[in-house]
Amino acid sequence: MFEAVELGQSLSKAEFKQAETTFRAELLQLQRQLAEAKVAALIVIAGVEGAGKGAVVNRLNKWLDNRDMATHAFWDETAAETQRPEYWRYWMGLPARGAIGIMFGAWYWDPIYRHCRGQASDAELDDGGQRIKELEHMLHQDGMLIIKLWFHLSKKTFHQRIKQRSEAAKHVRAEKGDEHGGVDYKPFVLSAARLISRTDTRVCPWNLIEAEDDYFRDISVAQAIRAGLTQRLAEHRVADRRLAVPNPLVGVDASGASILDTLDMGTALAKSDYKAQLKHYQKQLSELAWQAYDAGMSTVIVFEGWDAAGKGGAIRRLTSAVDARLYRSHSVAAPSDEELAHHYLWRFWRQVPRAGYMTLYDRSWYGRVLVERVEQLARTDEWQRAYQEINDFEEQLVDSGAAVLKFWLHVTPEEQLKRFEQRQQTPWKQYKLTDDDWRNRDKRDAYEAAVNEMVLRTSTGKAPWCLIPADDKYYARINVLKEVCERLDQALHTN
To answer: Among 42-46, 89-93, 260-264, 359-363, whose mean pLDDT is lowest?
Structure first.
């Protein structure tokens, strides 16, 4: 693979200066157009040690307007990063729409270095490559441009530069652009070639850069970035024209039985039984929360359901049993401008709990396939691909050691209307009832179809849905508590 760029190409200083003047002006213009189009661009800088990756990034910050750029070098993991899923640190560094992000190595470094050091098998490297492909494809579909640059040196030049840097380090601090240095050339290159071949896709291709000559390397980088930006901006203009016509609402026919119809809505619990069981399960949950903390196991609990289904009440019964230092509760509303500038999952990645802690979501990432689908706030292609994106997200949470619990609280239309009317008549509850709540009742069939498909397509072995009949609040609260206790106990004894 890399032999194709061992050609000994070079530029004179005069040739470089002439080309630099042209490229610098063109790249600045393209950067402005990128900002106007609200398109995010991510530049991945990777390659062999000593190839000048740091020098390239410094030059890019000189050529471009770095007020709209951010550079991330993933050196030693912070405490916050080690206590969250592997990809959390990368999501935190993704650029907003209209901005440019530069990542040293990004999600490629760890798989390559683990493999070349014998800490990961071929199959594990290939699995890592598949996850990378899925992530990059998802970001691309969301509109992000990903430019991947691999800097290559011949074995001879590599050893020469390592020797030079070793000698220089006796007097000055060596360049720290190669986070995982200290590996042999051959195994590193073989591991990199294997991963690159498996992640070189049509929409996110690799650019192999010959880095023997600094001038040629830097102009090659400029050419690759110019080509990527030019193509992405052209695609954006075409997409704007194509999306000018709203997509029709599809897939909302609720004819026929749904999975929600299988629930026994007549279940109820006497108040005396409720109080006894509430005390029992809250005591158990308190103990399990501390066990999870000691074990470093995070917990993610998602609540979805109809308006007035009792999500808030169920959450309060959970949180009152857990030490306030161990949990965070998020009530998910419409996204902010900052959140809208990123992939819709970005704001939920930000809230992923640290190891040992618990996060509860009143509404969640499922808004993409529920309210955004029904209200046509997301295009058809966006909510249709969200099922797999959500499954991948939750799988990463579970694979990192988290327990993921998802509840749908179901109430009948008759019970919901009764609760709406009670809220309307109770002064301290009136704020809970909005015009949207009444309007959503008119779209019950559309929402029920969306819920049914959501459950069918996102109830996985690692993160199954738990459907709770909630016409009786006592019954619903106890069953939520019971399920949380059982799942936490199971997860603690499995991990």
So the answer is: 260-264
